[in-house]
Amino acid sequence: MPRELLKKFDARIVTGWSMLLGGIVFAPVAHLSQVPSLNMTSWIAIIFIITGGTMFSYLFYLQSLNYLTASTTGMLSAFEPLTATIISVTILNTHIGPAEISGAILILGITFLQALPKQLFVRRHNQVHS
């Protein structure tokens, strides 16, 4: 987490620089794949994914750190793939199989582990080593 950067700079600045630097790092390999011819609908979808699905989502995530603790935002971000799966199954009629069910169980498990109080782990660790 760029917590130290967020103390000095606005989240929009951090997001902008991270996207720019990521693009510069990616630029040397961008020419390796041929760009297909796209219609206007495809270009609009790509622009929406870049701005809405990447740039704004990262910006809102960084902005949320001003209002929520890092552990809370971590738990919320752990639910993101689970939410995407539920939406794709209900709205897009995507098939769900054993791999997806296993992934959902792992996501829920990690989320519940993150929710456990830190003192619980410290107490158990001290009991084991005493």
UniProtKB/TrEMBL annotation:
Taxonomic superkingdom: Bacteria
Transmembrane segments: 12-31, 43-62, 74-92, 98-116
Subcellular location: Endomembrane system
GO cellular component terms given for this protein: membrane
Keyword Mitochondrion included in the entry's annotation: no
Entries under SUPFAM superfamilies matching the protein: Multidrug resistance efflux transporter EmrE (SSF103481)
One Pfam family named in its UniProt record: EamA
Domain EamA span(s) in chain numbering: 3-113
Topology in membrane: Multi-pass membrane protein
Alphabetical keyword list: Membrane, Transmembrane, Transmembrane helix
PANTHER family given in the database record: EAMA DOMAIN-CONTAINING PROTEIN (PTHR32322:SF2), INNER MEMBRANE TRANSPORTER (PTHR32322)
Family: Belongs to the EamA transporter family.
Record protein name field: DMT family permease
Organism of origin: Companilactobacillus tucceti DSM 20183
